[in-house]
């Protein structure tokens, strides 16, 4: 049975083979499959981002973005007490690039941590808007255009952390491989131009597909 029994040791949690996504049922099948891939080997970002032939490509991109937001909330939580309105009163990354927060009626300056929280909340609101995303099994092509702007804004959370809180970034990446996976996703689905991905590849942990 595919469940963790009471008393299961931490090392043995989710110790089952990955199920073929074509055999999975229900509206959350793609989300569950992506999460299984991540639990199985978070370092194999190429395999995690590679869309199965039986999955709608629009749904695949959408569900990955929802998963990124879930995990980026963990990064924002880890920065608590490190990235504050006092230490980082403006949202900056490499070369002192200053980002205005677009989560307001008129873009404005926010502290870095507020920028992160505002954009995570705004991105969540967009992806949960039933007007554009009223199904988890079919995403209209017209709604896919909303994904790339979200990706570009969310990448700034990584760049701020990398250039201003380097050790926190490295510790989080060593465990989660989140920026590595996000970078693979952004390139694979043409969500961002390569020149905008400013975190050095040498700092990422991308494992070649087997």
TrEMBL record:
Gene3D superfamilies membership: MOB kinase activator (1.20.140.30)
Keywords: Kinase, Transferase
InterPro entries linked: MOB_kinase_act_fam, MOB_kinase_act_sf
Molecular-function annotations in GO: kinase activity
One protein family per Pfam: Mob1_phocein
Name this polypeptide is given: Mps one binder kinase activator-like protein
Lineage, opening ranks: Eukaryota, Sar, Alveolata, Ciliophora, Intramacronucleata
């Amino acid at each position: 049975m595919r469940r963790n029994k009471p008393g299961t040791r931490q090392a043995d949690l989710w110790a089952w083979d990955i199920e073929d996504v074509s055999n999975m049922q229900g509206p959350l099948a793609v989300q569950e499959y992506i999460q299984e891939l991540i639990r199985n080997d978070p370092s194999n970002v190429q395999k995690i981002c590679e869309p199965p032939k039986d999955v709608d490509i629009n749904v695949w991109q959408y569900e990955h973005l929802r998963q990124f937001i879930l995990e980026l909330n963990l990064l924002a939580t880890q920065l608590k007490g490190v990235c504050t309105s006092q230490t980082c009163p403006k949202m900056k990354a490499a070369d002192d690039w200053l980002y205005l927060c677009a989560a307001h009626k008129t873009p404005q300056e926010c502290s870095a941590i507020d920028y992160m929280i505002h954009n995570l909340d705004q991105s969540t609101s967009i992806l949960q808007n039933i007007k554009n995303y009223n199904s988890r099994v079919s995403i209209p092509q017209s709604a896919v255009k909303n994904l790339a702007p979200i990706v570009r804004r969310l990448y700034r959370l990584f760049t701020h952390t990398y250039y201003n809180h380097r050790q926190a970034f490295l510790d989080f990446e060593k465990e989660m491989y989140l920026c590595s996976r996000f970078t693979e996703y952004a390139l694979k689905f043409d969500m961002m131009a390569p020149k905008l991905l400013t975190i050095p590849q040498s700092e990422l942990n991308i494992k070649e597909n087997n």
